[in-house]
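pinging the channel bc i need a second pair of eyes. not urgent but kinda urgent?? the chain im working w is below, pasted from the shared doc
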Amino acid sequence: MEAKIVLGVIGADCHSVGNKILDYAFSQEGFKVTNIGVLSSQEEFINAAIETNANMIVVSSLYGHGELDCRGFKEKCIEAGLEDVKLYVGGNLVVGKQEWEPVEQRFKEMGFDRVYPPGTKPEVTIRHIREDLGIEDLGEQYEMRSIS
């Protein structure tokens, strides 16, 4: 299976550095990435996933309003026929300092398959993409690059 990923920053968030780092890391891994950029609505993610026949949507949010921006996302994916598309979300998803476990749980209850706290290395997400899509690791052919 090939990883076809729609990547972007949701809502009114315009933080682009993490988005570009993930785009680079995923592309270097051989994943097919469609980066819709910053200030993206749920509908833009969904439309891009339909147009590219994506099997994964990776949502980034750093400005603390990810919880508001992501509400109802899974339901809209299901309505659009994307019930099998994996949903990942990561970044600074909530306002203020909150314990991570309850935050992660809330996003999982919203239908996200994986939820990442701020500072998660791309290598972690890449490993999860491979696991969730059943993609064989390239092993020795792949040399993990340092991205920071």
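so Residues 4-133 form a domain with the Rossmann fold fold (CATH 3.40.50.280). and Confidence is low (pLDDT under 50) at residues 140-148. — does that match what u expected or am i reading it wrong
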